[in-house]
Fold:
Amino acid sequence: MKGLTLTILGCHSASPRADARPTAQLLDLSGHLFLIDCGEGTQVALRQKKIKFARIKHIFISHLHGDHYFGLIGLVSTMRLLGREEPLHIYGPKGIKEIITLQLKLGKSWTNFPLFFHELDQDVSVLIFEDDLVMVETLPLDHRIYTNGFLFKAKRGDRLLDRAAAEMAGISPAYFKKLKQGHNVPNANGDLVDHQSVTEPAKTPLSYAYCSDTAYLSSLPELISGISVLYHESTFLTAQQGLCERTKHSTAQQAALIAEASGVRFLILGHYSGRYVHLEEFREEALRYFDQVFLAEDGRCFRLLEGDGQQMVQI
Amino acid sequence: MKGLTLTILGCHSASPRADARPTAQLLDLSGHLFLIDCGEGTQVALRQKKIKFARIKHIFISHLHGDHYFGLIGLVSTMRLLGREEPLHIYGPKGIKEIITLQLKLGKSWTNFPLFFHELDQDVSVLIFEDDLVMVETLPLDHRIYTNGFLFKAKRGDRLLDRAAAEMAGISPAYFKKLKQGHNVPNANGDLVDHQSVTEPAKTPLSYAYCSDTAYLSSLPELISGISVLYHESTFLTAQQGLCERTKHSTAQQAALIAEASGVRFLILGHYSGRYVHLEEFREEALRYFDQVFLAEDGRCFRLLEGDGQQMVQI
Structure:
């Protein structure tokens, strides 16, 4: 799948209910399938979406409140039962390794696949994963316990080749890769051809920031400036501002102000408190401060196509 | 609720699926609501059955395989969020305390209510709970890791008073309680009346044995002789006998042979492997060796009324 697809497996705060799953998301970006948080019941939500567990190689846990990770040990155990052999990488706060390994040990259920823990304890943004196509950085957040958001950035790809123009210019196909990489190359006559004359700039790389759970954090926009999609928690509406501050969460208004200050293209709200019945109220509150607001709902998908950049499709 | 009611919250082995919950049961006996095992998703199953979490004061965990306890930390956390103040008692293998407290500690989520752990490590049956109405004993089982079943026994109640006969015999109501307790008492003339002449024996106390997970265990019938209801795992059918032995589980045939040897009244089968589609096959296999066989299914209730003893109602 080209572009960026975000599947909301669960987007509610606190305890799971029959019609409200705790937090878990699946991000499909640059060929990777990243699992972000893993509340109780995530493995069932993955099955309902017909996601092959083997495709998930990296799991990111924001913090050690149960609604963000109580489903992790079950998912890891099921991967073992399914005969997984591929390595699995888990990124999360210091302590996550002890929690998972203690349970595997007491159940005499060691995984047959390599399980790597990348424990986080820094209070500044750090690079935690990188390959040729994508990089992932932490976004230190402000919550009751140590918490990170995560910033996923696709890397800029090759320039786009105008194949007909390159052939007209007498350039051998053997040079096409170099052209796309931005090099000037010789044509059949031995003349050097400017790569810009037969290629166009690469598409703008897509990016996604996950920020949950957090109080309003004025330092956040600097870290996520100009990204494509921001998921920002909005546990409360402004009417519950006092409760929001005490519990170190955000209102829909605050999420929208962060989106506005960051210059992101699209904002997705989620992590709603169970006290609210009409989620549309969150969108209405946020729309007063930012104009591209979407609502997470359990099972909903958001898709942003590379290059068009102007529209996010909600499925 | 008088009598015995067993609610199957989940009865499948291994990983939770959309239509198959891992093990958890709720036993309503002598005014207690006992939770037995607590696989992932149990708290949602309890909500769907509209069970008030505050009514559960004792939780029994058979062993530390995930399909029997991964839902426990979520349930405990939710009890905290709901503002519980009543104590909670958890009975389970050594290690359960460390698993739960580690997660509460790392989430800075200590419970506001007293949480008592009763860790088990003995290989013989021991009494683990008793009050005026009921007693609970362990049933050491034979599985890949340390595992206990649990035997719940209502205590024998008072004798049943024939009030009219007692009045005819000239006995003052002040003596009725003593009569029901089996004492001979004087009538209005000062003559001693035999309690047996105006009372009937107490009803047979109801009892329930939970046995999962276990290989066929020939020493089990001695411990559960003559009980009312036996839940015995039947992960496999006899056709998969080899797999059954390797994984230390039981077949439906073996469960039935245990029921027959124990002289129990009713057998409930459960903990089915995900490989089977038609659960009725389990009942058919067991019926060849024992004639009162019921099938556990997620959400199903079984009710045995005190005194009648001859019929179990399936709801």
Observations:
- Chain B has a mean pLDDT of 95.
